[in-house]
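Check these lines:
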Amino acid sequence: MNDMDAPTRPPLAALPTPASLRGAGQAAAARGEPLVVMTSLEGCPYCAIVRGHYLLPMRREGQVHAVELDVLDRKSNLQGFDGQLTTPAEQARAWKARFTPTVLFFGPDGRELAERLVGVAVPDFYGEYLEARLAEARRKLR
């Protein structure tokens, strides 16, 4: 087998990591959307499912304003909703987002607008759970 015969794999895509939750929340709210934050862990297969099958396609189509925080990232600076500097790892811990993926839905003030989606308990229904949480968050945002 030569290089031409090797199967090609698309590069792993990630959601953006915000420098500021406050700024990302305000940008989402300006579009009438909640800020969707997924906490993740490198190598987490369930994170890859949620990211690749749900959040990235929805983001590309302009349906959600979604970002991602790595629960082990203790080096990157992140401005919280309160304006204070923290790290993605500290922020996830402050939210008590212990499992990956955890998908959270925020208003521009950092208030959670819908129940979190923790893990991928029933993959067949994940899309419906996500849509229901988004609808609830959008209602509360208005």
Observations:
- Residues 21-141 form a domain with the Glutaredoxin fold (CATH 3.40.30.10).
- Confidence is low (pLDDT under 50) at residues 1-11.
